[in-house]
C-alpha cells in the first residue's frame, strides 16, 4: 500500500476517533491466535489472519499498553488514533504464535492471565472443546446436565455441540462446572491435551519482552456466581501471583466472561479498584472516551479477514461509545 494511501487512512482514523466529541480509545480483544485454522474454532483467528490485522494496526494506529493509554485518556493527553491490543486467559499460543507476530510488527499488547491454569491447567471451555473433538460420531446424551440431545458427526455438528454445552454450563458454580467437564472428558476416546495454557516461564518471557501482564482471577469464575469473599480472593490472589511471577504488580484487570450486569457488577468493580488496579475491561462491545468508567472499559473483537474490511470495522466501531453499565 502506498505512502499516500496510508497517510489518507491514518487521517481518516484520526478523524473518526476524535470527531463529534472527546478523543476515543479502541481496545481490541483477542483470546487465541492459532498456528493453523481449526474447523472446531471457526471464529478464532489463525496466524495468517492475525498477521494481516497486526500489519494494519502497525501502519495506521499508535498502539500502546492498556495502562498507559487509560492514563493518557483520563488526563487529557491521549492522541487520536491510539489503540490497545488485549488477550484474555493466558493461552500458550499467546506466547508461541501471537508474541512473534506482535514483535514482527513492533506492537505491544496486554495479556490478562488466569494464574491458576498456568502450566498443565485447562479451562472448562477447552475441556469441552477437546473432549467433543475426540468423541465418536453418534448421539450424545447429556440429559443429566439439563442439556438437549446432541448428535455428533461432521465439524458443524461438533461446533454446535461445543457451543450448546459451553453455554449451558458456563454459569454453573465452579465446582459443578468442573464436575460436568470432567464427566465429559471421561467419555473421550483418548487423553486431552495438557499444554493449552502458558507456563509460568512463558509469562515471564512475555513480560521481559515488553508485553504487559494483567489480572484475570485465579480460576476464571464468573464473578456473579460466587460470593464476595470468593471473588475478592480470586482477584487479589491472582494479582499477587502475577506480581510474584513477573516482579511487576499488574495494573489492569479483565472480568472473566465480562458481560456487564450479568457476569460482574458494581461490587466486583469496587473489589478490583480496592485491589489496586487502575482500570478494568469488560467484553461489552464499543469504545470509550474520557467519560467512560475506567473500571468498565469496553472492547472490540476484530472479525474481518481483509485489510479494507478490518479498517472499515474499526471505523464503524468508533461510533459505539460506551460509558459504563454496572
From TrEMBL:
Q: Which PROSITE patterns match?
A: NODB (PS51677)
Q: Superkingdom of this entry's organism?
A: Bacteria
Q: What is its main location?
A: secreted
| Pfam families (UniProt xref) | Polysacc_deac_1
Q: Which Gene3D superfamilies match?
A: Glycoside hydrolase/deacetylase (3.20.20.370)
* Residues of the NodB homology domain: 81-326
Q: Where in the cell is it found?
A: Secreted
InterPro entries per UniProt:
Glyco_hydro/deAcase_b/a-brl, NODB_dom, Polysacch_Deacetylase
Q: Which GO terms describe its molecular function?
A: hydrolase activity, acting on carbon-nitrogen (but not peptide) bonds
- Keyword list, A-Z: Signal
Give the protein name, as stated in the record: Polysaccharide deacetylase
Amino acid at each position: 500500500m502506498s505512502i499516500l494511501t496510508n497517510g489518507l487512512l491514518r487521517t481518516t482514523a484520526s478523524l473518526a476517533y476524535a470527531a463529534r466529541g472527546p478523543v476515543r480509545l479502541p481496545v481490541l480483544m483477542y483470546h487465541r491466535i492459532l498456528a493453523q485454522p481449526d474447523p472446531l474454532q471457526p471464529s478464532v483467528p489463525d496466524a495468517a489472519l492475525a498477521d494481516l490485522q497486526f500489519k494494519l494496526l502497525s501502519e495506521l494506529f499508535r498502539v500502546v499498553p492498556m495502562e498507559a493509554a487509560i492514563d493518557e485518556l483520563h488526563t487529557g493527553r491521549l492522541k487520536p488514533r491510539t489503540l490497545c491490543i488485549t488477550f484474555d486467559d493466558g493461552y500458550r499460543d499467546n506466547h508461541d504464535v501471537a508474541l512473534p507476530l506482535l514483535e514482527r510488527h513492533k506492537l505491544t499488547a496486554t495479556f490478562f492471565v488466569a494464574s491458576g491454569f498456568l502450566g498443565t491447567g485447562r479451562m472448562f471451555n477447552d475441556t469441552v472443546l477437546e473432549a467433543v473433538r475426540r468423541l465418536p460420531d453418534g448421539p450424545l446424551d447429556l440429559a443429566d446436565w439439563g442439556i438437549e440431545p446432541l448428535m455428533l458427526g461432521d465439524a458443524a455438528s461438533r461446533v454446535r455441540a461445543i457451543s450448546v454445552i459451553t453455554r449451558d454450563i458456563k454459569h454453573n458454580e465452579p465446582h459443578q462446572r468442573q464436575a460436568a467437564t470432567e464427566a465429559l472428558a471421561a467419555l473421550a476416546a483418548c487423553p486431552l491435551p495438557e499444554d493449552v495454557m502458558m507456563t509460568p516461564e512463558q509469562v515471564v518471557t512475555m513480560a521481559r519482552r515488553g508485553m504487559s501482564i494483567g489480572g484475570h482471577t485465579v480460576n476464571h469464575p464468573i464473578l456473579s456466581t460466587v460470593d464476595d469473599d470468593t471473588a475478592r480472593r480470586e482477584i487479589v490472589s491472582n494479582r499477587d501471583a502475577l506480581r510474584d511471577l513477573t516482579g511487576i504488580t499488574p495494573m489492569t484487570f479483565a472480568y472473566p466472561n465480562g458481560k456487564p450486569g450479568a457476569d460482574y457488577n458494581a461490587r466486583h468493580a469496587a473489589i478490583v479498584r480496592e485491589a489496586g488496579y487502575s482500570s478494568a475491561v469488560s467484553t461489552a462491545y464499543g469504545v470509550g472516551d474520557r467519560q467512560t468508567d475506567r473500571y468498565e472499559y469496553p472492547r472490540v473483537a476484530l472479525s474481518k479477514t481483509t485489510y479494507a474490511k478490518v479498517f472499515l470495522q474499526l471505523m464503524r466501531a468508533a461510533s459505539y461509545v460506551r460509558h459504563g453499565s454496572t
